[in-house]
Sequence to fold (430 residues):
Amino acid sequence: MIRGRRLGVWRRPGVREPSQGHEPARPGVNRALGAVLSALVIFGPISMDLYLPALPALTTDLEAPASLGQLTLSACLLGLAGGQLVAGPLSDRLGRRTLLLWGIGVYIVSSLVCAAAPTIDALIVARLAQGLAGSVGLVVAMAAGRDLFEGPVLLGYYGRLTVISGTAAIVGPVIGGQLANFTDWRGIFVFLAGLGLLILIAAWIWGDETLPTDRRLATDSRLIDGFKLLRSDRTFVAMVLGIGFSTSAIFAYLGGATYVLQGTYGLSPQGYSYAFAGNSLSFVLCGVLASRVARAWSPVATLLTGLVMCVCGASSVLVVGLLHLPLPAVLASLATMVGGVAVVAPPATTLALERYPDIAGTASSILGTSKFLFGAVTAPLIGVGGGVSAVSLGTVTTAAMVMAAACIIAGSRPMDTLSAQRTRRTSTRV
Fold:
């Protein structure tokens, strides 16, 4: 059961006034609400991944070139990225529940339009709408957690969202492949609509409002002030850049690992699927472990550990490519890198949002958008040299991870924060 304590009194976005303790736990924070919020993060990965096994058949059926088929994926990605910048501020003003129900409803309708699309152009437009609607769930899942939780509980919550999102990305193509044995690409979009309907029913029954009316932003000027405040916060900007760069390495890995493992190391498609599953297992296990140990450590200590894993794993991929090391070395390097990202994301998100309960939707939207935008820019870079190899993959991922670490360390000075936390703990014990 997810439990957390309500926050103290907040007077304006980003500035917490001293309080005389914490309010009692919110009655609506129960297992059902936690399950609904957790389910929302699957909108991103399943919308992008579930239909991929049927993509060749889709382009053939609609008599479209492969480039336009790929554009259906890009349109959804663009919607997921840009939609968050709109959905986040709206949720701060209108509340989480109403916007979420409308967002899921539009997702269902747009999925059915995708299933009925007569041309590739119509499908591209419908996929953009599907991504825009799905972005609402991503923002609300992040912002509602900040409405309800704080401290180690908040860190554990974001850790669980990371694991669920990663797991959905792993099993999405597998489920899509199984569905392709029983239906065509249109049936897969109908399946997405049905899944959206189930989440809509659950949200309607158990999805309580997490942002009280008195904490909502009443005017557009306050929304603008919120953006200005976030932009001026060095720690928030550092976490946005850190999450963006580290996630971009994952996009590079997803786009390049298949060429490295099959082209360079000669794995069969089945062998690649096993290797991919092993690296994905590392992501899930590290995410689960990090969310547990963070309760005993601190967000800063957990974040630093994840950064070390990210840089070591990515740089090891580059070393493997330069020295032509065997397959186990590259698999271990990739597993360390993706596992490090699973460790970095929850504490970085916690540190970015912990001071902004009143504009959690706006702050969450910026964080979410950075992941997709950085990934979209970075992924193509691995093939700039004319082909994808362990060297090119290692170069891009190492640069991304070094930039992530540099931004976080320079922008937020985590070592100073960690030292201060240890000093406070020591003085408390004394």
Notes: The longest strand covers residues 10-12. Residues 27-210 form a domain with the Growth Hormone; Chain: A; fold (CATH 1.20.1250.20). The first helix runs from residue 31 to 40. Confidence is low (pLDDT under 50) at residues 1-28, 422-430.
